[in-house]
Amino acid sequence: MSLSNVWQTFKSHPQYTLMRGLGRFVFFRNLVILSRKLRHTRSTDEFLLNCQKRMGQSVFHDVDLESFVDELRTKGVAFGLRLPAGILEELTLFAQNNPCYAYRRTEAGFRFNEHKLAENSLQKPILLAQYFNTAVQCNAVKQLINDPVLQWIAATYLQSVPTFVGANMWWTFPVKASEQDRSEHAHLFHRDVDDYKFFKFFFYLTDVNPGEGAHVCVVASHENPPRIKASDKWTFRRYSDEEIDGFYAAKDIVEICGEAGTGFAENTLCIHKGRTPIAKERLLLQLQYSLFDYGVTNDIRDAAQLQMLV
User: Fold this and answer.
1) What highest taxon heads this organism's lineage (predicted)?
2) Which of 18, 192, 259, 304 is 20 to 30 A from 216 (CA-CA)?
3) Are 94 and 140 in contact (CB under 8 A)?
């Protein structure tokens, strides 16, 4: 990111920009995490107790919560969640009946079945299209945000009362995307710095087979960042497949596939990327929890600003 872009971001989101600078260093992350943990000890205990009282209301069953959080801590990614059929159906119906927005542009709305018409209007292939205001408009998203199992996992992992900072649902299409689009929309290996401590739940809403838009994660890389260039100690950047293949063992580079409804959690400080689908589009829902909300990771947009392409 150029200095001018950093300055513009600082003017609009000063706390976020400061966190992005300090949060790349383990010392500052641990200092903030410990401070918040100590200040939230009582309220966190009360929050967890409330979650436990509501466990019977959860849509997730037979999840070993302690093991799930332990796996998330040690490996940076944890598996074993599955959406029930009713929730999955409600989410997919929402996606079919509401407009999504090409490249997250508020003036580029279209419905899923008008994908080709939207590409013709833009005069370029659409790699990604996101829905806006899902936490407001979709009851299934609201239900998942408030699910006691997900909230318990979030509080236990973050060691604090968790802050829900945003839902995001988007399509990824099988197109020959430019290198710039692949980089901008996270289809090259990278790490996120969204807070001093944070993580995300991911749910596949379509079947995801090998090569068809799978999420790829380097296991435990949140504790073992790549040191390929001297500057990698200080900066975050995009990495080529060759760089990651050369730095990490092949067994640790995991392509996450699964049927519609498959869910997992990841601390995306881990090295990760989304694969560009080859033949079939992918629909995914992401729910993110952090210590603080900087107002930059949600899908909330002013409805008056949303415009349709077709």
Assistant:
1) Bacteria
2) 18
3) yes
